[in-house]
Automatic annotation (TrEMBL):
It is found in: Nucleus. Belongs to the E2F/DP family. The keyword Transcription applies. Keywords: DNA-binding, Membrane, Nucleus, Transcription, Transcription regulation, Transmembrane, Transmembrane helix. This is E2F/DP family winged-helix DNA-binding domain-containing protein. It comes from Trichomonas vaginalis (strain ATCC PRA-98 / G3). The lineage of its organism: Eukaryota, Metamonada, Parabasalia, Trichomonadida, Trichomonadidae.
Amino acid sequence: MQTKEYTFSHVIKKIITSIKSKPGEPIKVNIIAGEENCEKRRLYDLFNVLCSLGLCNKSIGKMYMWVGEENMLRTIQFEYEKFETEAIQNEFWEFFKLPESPPIGQLTMMILVIFLFFGVHEMSLKQICLVLAQKRSKMTVLLRRLYLAAFFLEQLGLISHSLKIGSYQLNLDADTIVKATFDDMKKRMLFPINSIEMQLQRIDNSFIAELKSMRYMILLQKMRLEKIPVTSAMDEEQESPNIENIVPQNHVSIY
């Protein structure tokens, strides 16, 4: 017997395949809802996600148009670069804060940005939720929304379930996106003038990897402080005997 989740997953994939095959044609949610016997609310969630990722544009009325994967990659890099730029001026955890009821599209993009920011190819939704909620006591409601956001990303093939329950793997070429972002930020002189990035002739992959590793250790520290188990092999490899002493004052201090 097929579950509701399986059925909805099948419908979503069918819709995406259909609209991809007709670029430039207006997409009418009301018609799709009738044809697929699907709740409009869920379809609007889907198109909120597609628009946030740059796969679709909202047209007149309640219609949408498919834009394509190339625009999606540009959109993801743009949002990630904007996030890195904003992070330079703020306290480490401040720039992750969301409005009280963030739209599903924003949550979807934030999942991808957090993967890129911490430089890991696998994360649990609890880790991502902690980054956004800041405190364990605020995670419950947000975590439910993140599972929905992750569901849409999985249907689009941008993430996939890992072998660990509640964990996902990133299916984007993260290294290329991050390297291009740092190169562009250096070219546009977005780093502080006295930062290591501006003093280096070029920002290489080893420098970026070291930065990302330090960021991830800060996340592990946060998890322990909030009493969230750190159990994966990757987390154990990242741990350091002196991790408790890492107290970031701002983003610049860990570059």
